[in-house]
Design a protein that fits this description.
single chain, mainly alpha, 92% helix, 3 helices
Length: 184
């Protein structure tokens, strides 16, 4: 509002400077009065409407700036959240790697234990089979030795046995059978 009088004075000076022959014109005063009314009306309308317009425009610009700042803060917050997630993702990946490494070690240890148990089982089974094969071999050896002993005994008996001895043995066997029969 303080600028309006200075603006009017400046406008009047400019208008007077442009019309050097204004003093000679008889309607010049009425032209000036008409101009001042028009300029005053325009000044009044401008003084009345422009501040509200500029205030609303300023308010909408400030509102836009505030919204932009809120959007910027939201974007920064989301970016920080994403950065936090990304850094947490790296930590999660490291944690996953460590867990999988530990799991692999546990699995390897379990496989080693199972392999050792299988080896012990196979060793025990081999020992049992070896022992069984040894017993079978001893049994067969005893049987073979018995067969050899019988063959040798048979050869010796045949070598000593002649017809008289054979007849005496048969007679003795028959007599023994009769005795047993009579006892029963």
């Amino acid at each position: 509002m303080k600028r309006l009088p200075w603006l009017l004075v400046l406008t009047a000076v400019v208008c007077c400077a442009q019309e050097p022959g204004a003093a000679e014109d008889k309607y010049a005063v009425w032209k000036w009065i008409n101009f001042l009314i028009l300029a005053g009306g325009l000044g009044y309308l401008m003084a009345k409407n422009l501040p509200a317009f500029f205030q609303s425009r300023t308010a909408s610009i400030q509102k836009g700036i505030a919204e932009a700042q809120l959007m910027k803060q939201d974007a920064e917050r989301r970016a920080a959240d994403m950065d936090r997630r990304m850094s947490a993702l790296g930590a999660e990946i490291d944690k996953f790697r460590a867990a999988s490494q530990a799991e692999m070690q546990q699995e390897g240890e379990r496989i080693r234990q199972e392999t050792a148990a299988q080896i012990r089982k196979l060793e025990q089974q081999a020992e049992v089979e070896i022992e069984s094969a040894g017993k079978t071999a001893r049994r067969e050896l005893k049987s073979y030795a018995a067969d050899l002993a019988l063959d040798l005994a048979e050869q010796r008996v045949r070598a000593r046995l002649d017809g008289k001895t054979e007849a005496a043995l048969v007679d003795s066997f028959v007599a023994d059978l009769k005795r047993r029969e009579s006892n029963n």
